[in-house]
């Protein structure tokens, strides 16, 4: 029954004329009613529908009774009935390294956004590094925009980057609409994106004070020269994961976060810690947040937030085989005790959102040597299923998925009045998700460019059946539908 409805939808959309055949936004021309026995919001699940207007925005949320009366009235509404499939807000992945231009052989906008669409992600935010140029000046941002513009299958926003000496560029990038800035306190892994030095932090907080932007940190600080020099720990076998893990102790994260926290009382800048691995980071941030809330900071979560990533919630160091550098990322995947602590924090709402940190590379940079290989896990396509596989086993609900994967990232990126929830007035970024289905990760289902994954050949629970951005079908049952329909999330004029 469902398949019939979906096929009808697909043929309708393929016949719809596209203005340029390329990226121009082709809005749905008719009202659409998405039906499901299981409409999921952060706080509840119900049997009903979501009415989407001609512009691709959510107009009304309906219970099943309202649906019946709407349909009996003589309305010209296209009905898309998902039956028992869950109807949810699309996922927002606020941490994706697209790498185009410059390292497009690692990943590009077409492949990254197609993979995203297949994974139920309707918006990605592109990280400022690993492309050449990095997004550290307004000109560089324009270069990124030009590369992305005609190629995106989901909506795309941008992080700007902070490197020593680019202070003068930051306000211009805020005006262009970057969601915030990311900086490193330790080596970033690429030469064109040097890290910020401790001594520059104070100035940075002053410059961004009052701009309403987000200052995000890769929070690792080198302690005792451990990062690459193989000093102070047993480095005899670089093919062992334990060697790499010992080179990035939790203290590197804790020290960095404590340093950042020391600047928070004097500033109103929203500070976000990306990819928290060491669970001990969370209490440090909570203390800083409380201080700010007491000082009157009215921002989301007191302007102090943190994300963790699917790999820290799914994998643990004990299971990583020697030589398998597809598991290498930084900060590293830690032990099972740490993983379970992160889950406790999630259950208690002490973390704010979850992202992929999709950081791909070509296979030749993933040798069997953990100390030399590229650090980055590819997973943009699988975040929703990875999270659901673990969350379901721990008794969490689909509403928790929407909280951590859609609403949380929307808030971080200032998109909460536009995306990230099923609510009237927001973009109809919607997915049909089968929470009972499972699938195996194999190279032929992977749509991102380099088919490398620590999840290869594993079974994941929960399958994305269809993805819609602003009311338009972009992915259905294994297929990308039509051309690029995504837009770039920038201020007018950019
Ligand atoms: C998932 O399983 C539950 C319980 O068996 C069932 O009620 C529901 O209809 C199933 N959903 C789908 C989409 O098959
Ligand atoms: C940031 O702005 C607030 C007022 O909004 C001010 O009290 C504070 O001193 C400023 N901090 C810095 C570091 O400039
Ligand atoms: C750094 O080295 C000192 C002296 O060897 C040691 O006491 C300390 O625990 C080390 N710190 C970390 C984080 O490894
Ligand atoms: C780190 O290494 C440098 C140069 O090798 C040395 O001067 C410095 O004392 C070391 N720092 C620590 C904390 O071990
Ligand atoms: C897990 O890692 C932490 C931090 O490195 C360590 O203190 C703890 O002993 C480890 N636990 C196990 C069971 O290995
Ligand atoms: Zn990253």
From TrEMBL:
Keyword hit for ATP-binding: no
Record keywords, A-Z: Hydrolase, Metal-binding, Signal, Zinc
Pathway of action: Nitrogen metabolism; (S)-allantoin degradation; allantoate from (S)-allantoin: step 1/1
Single GO cellular component term: cytoplasm
GO BP annotation list: allantoin catabolic process; purine nucleobase catabolic process
Signal peptide region: 1-21
SUPFAM superfamilies documented for this protein: Composite domain of metallo-dependent hydrolases (SSF51338), Metallo-dependent hydrolases (SSF51556)
Alphabetized GO MF terms: allantoinase activity; cobalt ion binding; zinc ion binding
Enzyme class: hydrolase
Superkingdom of the organism of origin: Eukaryota
Catalysed reaction equations from the record: (S)-allantoin + H2O = allantoate + H(+)
Reported cofactor(s): Zn(2+)
The enzyme's E.C. designation: 3.5.2.5
InterPro entries xref list: Allantoinase, Amidohydro-rel, DHOase/Allantoinase_Hydrolase, Dihydroorotase_CS, Metal-dep_hydrolase_composite, Metal_Hydrolase
Positions of the Amidohydrolase-related domain: 87-474
Family per similarity comment: Belongs to the metallo-dependent hydrolases superfamily. Allantoinase family.
Assembly: Homotetramer.
Name used for this protein in its record: allantoinase
Species this protein is from: Parnassius mnemosyne
Upper taxonomic lineage: Eukaryota, Metazoa, Ecdysozoa, Arthropoda, Hexapoda
């Amino acid at each position: 029954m469902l398949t019939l409805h979906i096929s009808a939808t697909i043929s309708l959309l393929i016949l719809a004329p596209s203005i340029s055949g390329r990226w121009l936004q082709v809005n749905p021309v008719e009202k659409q009613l998405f039906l499901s026995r299981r409409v999921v919001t952060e706080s509840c699940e119900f049997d009903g529908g979501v009415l989407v207007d001609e512009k691709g925005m959510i107009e009304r949320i309906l219970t099943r009774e309202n649906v019946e009366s709407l349909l009996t009235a003589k309305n010209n509404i296209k009905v898309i009935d998902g039956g028992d499939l869950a109807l949810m807000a699309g996922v927002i992945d606020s941490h994706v390294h697209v790498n185009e231009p410059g390292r497009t052989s690692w990943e590009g906008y077409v492949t990254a956004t197609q993979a995203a669409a297949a994974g139920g992600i309707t918006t990605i935010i592109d990280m400022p590094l690993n492309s050449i140029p990095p997004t550290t000046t307004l000109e560089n941002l324009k270069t990124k925009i030009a590369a992305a513009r005609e190629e995106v299958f989901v909506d795309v926003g941008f992080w700007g980057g902070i490197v020593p000496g680019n202070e003068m560029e930051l306000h211009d990038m805020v005006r262009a609409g970057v969601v915030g800035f990311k900086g490193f306190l330790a080596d970033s892994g690429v030469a064109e994106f040097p890290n910020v030095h401790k001594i520059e932090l104070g100035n940075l907080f002053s410059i961004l004070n009052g701009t309403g932007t987000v200052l995000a940190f890769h929070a690792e600080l080198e302690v005792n020269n451990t990062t690459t020099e193989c000093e102070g720990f047993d480095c005899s076998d670089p093919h062992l994961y334990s060697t790499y893990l010992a080179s990035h102790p939790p203290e590197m994260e804790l020290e960095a976060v404590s340093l950042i926290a020391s600047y928070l009382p004097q500033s109103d800048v929203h500070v976000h810690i990306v990819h928290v691995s060491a669970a001990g980071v969370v209490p440090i941030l909570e203390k800083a947040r409380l201080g700010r809330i007491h000082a009157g900071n009215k921002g989301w979560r007191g302007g102090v937030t943190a994300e963790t990533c699917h790999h820290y919630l799914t994998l643990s160091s004990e299971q990583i085989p020697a030589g398998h550098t597809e598991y290498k990322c930084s900060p590293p995947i830690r032990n099972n005790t740490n993983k379970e602590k992160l889950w406790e924090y999630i259950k208690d709402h002490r973390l704010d959102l979850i992202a992929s940190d999709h950081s791909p590379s070509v296979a030749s940079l993933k040798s069997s040597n953990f100390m030399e290989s590229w650090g980055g896990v590819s997973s943009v396509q699988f975040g929703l299923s990875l999270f659901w596989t673990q969350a379901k086993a721990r008794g969490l609900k689909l509403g928790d998925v929407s909280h951590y994967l859609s609403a949380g990232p929307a808030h971080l990126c200032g998109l909460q009045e536009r995306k990230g929830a099923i609510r009237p007035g927001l973009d109809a970024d919607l997915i049909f998700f089968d929470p009972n289905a499972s699938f195996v990760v194999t190279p032929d289902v992977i749509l991102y460019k380099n088919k490398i994954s620590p999840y290869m050949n594993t079974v994941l629970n929960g399958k994305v059946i269809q993805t819609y951005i602003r009311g338009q079908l972009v992915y259905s049952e294994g297929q990308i539908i039509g051309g690029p329909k995504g837009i770039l999330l920038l201020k007018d004029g950019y």
